[in-house]
Automatic annotation (TrEMBL):
Pathway involvement of the protein, from the record: Porphyrin-containing compound metabolism; protoporphyrin-IX biosynthesis; 5-aminolevulinate from L-glutamyl-tRNA(Glu): step 1/2
Note: During catalysis, the active site Cys acts as a nucleophile attacking the alpha-carbonyl group of tRNA-bound glutamate with the formation of a thioester intermediate between enzyme and glutamate, and the concomitant release of tRNA(Glu). The thioester intermediate is finally reduced by direct hydride transfer from NADPH, to form the product GSA.
SUPFAM superfamilies cross-referenced by the UniProt entry: Glutamyl tRNA-reductase catalytic, N-terminal domain, Glutamyl tRNA-reductase dimerization domain, NAD(P)-binding Rossmann-fold domains
Statement: the UniProt record of this protein carries the keyword Glycoprotein: no
UniProt GO molecular function: glutamyl-tRNA reductase activity; NADP binding
Binding residues for NADP(+): G183, A184, G185, E186, M187, G188
Signal peptide (UniProt feature, chain positions): none
Chain ranges of the Tetrapyrrole biosynthesis glutamyl-tRNA reductase dimerisation domain: 310-410
Record's protein name: Glutamyl-tRNA reductase
One GO term of the biological process aspect: protoporphyrinogen IX biosynthetic process from glutamate
Length: 455
């Protein structure tokens, strides 16, 4: 529908894709991804989400087909089965599920909600957020917050970092072990805290920026020290467990770093990968990546199944509310255009009539007010029927009728279309020219507007 906008989305996630495929679909950072999307034909809004488990993009266009074209080359190097396309409604529901933690590798984990909020602010800063995506992502974060306060979806919150520690624990005893965490970001910090809780005796935190590593080292309850990445090889040589979670675009661990370490469990939870695949061939070294966490996270999924069902019901309710909001807005935009067109005709014809009456002997101010009131009453009565029909059309998803109304009642009569993206004014988005006495539930036959569409 013209000027209303629909969302088209596409995603590559852990559900269908490998960690390498997710990495290839990522565009470096959210801001550059949003700017690239906005530069495409017919895109008015854009949003992107990139984490270690997913790379997603959303655009708003006037028609769904235009959105699909804008996203057609989102992940050219990823096999077809790993790329999932979403229409408007699928995108809305998926954003809610992501925010609630239902789409996470670790069901109910809290980190995704913060990642979604940060991506939203980045997209806003890049000029990608307008009224359609604002509603969609804001509703998603609202659902995510409700899910965590009203259900037990994140009870005993298990993060990707703590899941990595559980996986390490299945490979080697952690009580009294020596561990190395590479990366001092959110995932690295969570991994370090989980290792300390698991009873490691010695912990090394390595990071490109040493002060960040020092900060993480002071936050854990076991002896810990910080190193630069350049000095990590010596620490790994004595390590039983290595967990890597940097944001580096290049490998940070090669065979040279690990070849003298003996029996070592290496868990790579970075995206893109931190660990060169060649490390897997070293004797005594066991390497796991994000794809290998499924067994650990499945147990969490089972424990949270009841809470997940509650969240699903919550999403169903919030989804219907959001759809109703969109439907009402679309109807109001069409009604807005209709009243603007009628107001232009009314003003022109009233001015013509008053000019003729003045030429025939003049009018008093009271007579002029009577003519104006008559014109307003006629507009209100004539448009009462199509107003009701348009609202019904929105509820019934009858966008053809709304499209026909927008075509028939173009306020500029063939000129540039007015921007109705964010209507404001009395009566929830109706323009100032809409009479307040037009009833929402006027008893008018639906065939009135359908007859116009047939013409």
């Amino acid at each position: 529908m013209r000027n209303a906008g629909v969302i088209s989305g596409v995603r590559v996630s852990h559900e269908h894709a490998t960690v390498d495929e997710i990495a290839s679909a990522s565009d470096g950072d959210v801001r550059s991804a949003v700017e690239s999307l906005l530069a495409r034909d017919h895109v008015s809004e854009a949003f992107a989400l990139q984490t270690c488990n997913r790379a997603e993009a959303y655009v708003v266009t006037e028609a769904q087909a235009a959105g699909r074209r804008a996203l057609a080359d989102f992940a050219p190097d990823v096999r077809d089965g790993a790329v999932v396309e979403m229409n408007h409604e699928e995108s809305l529901r998926h954003l809610m599920r992501v925010a609630a933690g239902l789409e996470s590798l670790v069901v109910g984990e809290d980190q995704i909600l913060g990642q979604l909020k940060r991506a939203f602010e980045t997209a806003r800063g890049a000029g990608g957020i307008g009224p359609i995506l604002d509603d969609a992502v804001t509703k998603g974060t609202h659902v995510g917050e409700r899910a965590r306060t009203e259900t037990a979806i994140n009870e005993g919150a298990l993060s990707l970092g703590s899941a990595a520690v559980r996986l390490a624990e299945s490979e080697t005893p952690l009580e009294g072990a020596t561990a190395v965490v590479i990366g001092a970001g959110e995932m690295g910090t969570l991994a370090a805290q989980s290792l300390a809780a698991a009873g490691v005796e010695d912990l090394v935190v390595a990071n490109r920026t040493v002060p960040h590593a020092e900060h993480v080292a002071t936050e854990v309850d076991v002896p810990a020290r910080a190193l630069s990445l350049d000095a990590v090889e010596e620490a790994i040589e004595a390590a039983d467990v290595v967990i890597s979670a940097t944001g580096s675009p290049e490998y940070v661990l090669s065979s040279d770093h690990v070849e003298t370490s003996g029996e070592t469990t290496v868990i790579d939870i970075a995206q893109p990968r931190d660990v060169d695949p060649a490390v897997e061939s070293l004797p005594g070294v066991v390497v796991h990546d994000i794809d290998g966490l499924e067994a650990v996270t499945e147990k969490t999924r089972e424990r949270r199944r009841e809470a997940a069902q509650q969240v699903e019901a919550m999403i169903d309710d919030e989804f219907e509310r959001l759809l109703e909001s969109y439907k009402q807005r679309r109807a109001d935009r069409a009604i807005s255009g209709m009243y603007e067109a009628a107001e232009q005709v009314k003003q022109r014809e009233v001015e013509t009539a008053l000019a003729k009456l003045d030429a025939q002997g003049g009018l008093t101010d009271e007579q002029r007010e009577t003519v104006d009131a008559l014109a307003d009453a006629l507009v209100g009565q004539l448009l009462s029927a199509p107003t009701k029909s348009l609202r019904e059309a929105a509820v019934e998803d009858d966008w053809d009728t709304i499209q026909t109304a927008m075509t028939l009642f173009d306020p500029d009569f063939g000129g540039d279309e007015p921007s109705l993206e964010s209507p404001s004014g009395p009566r929830d988005g109706m323009p100032d020219g809409v009479p307040e006495d037009v009833p929402d539930d006027a008893d008018v036959p639906r065939h009135v507007l359908e007859g116009l569409a047939d013409d």
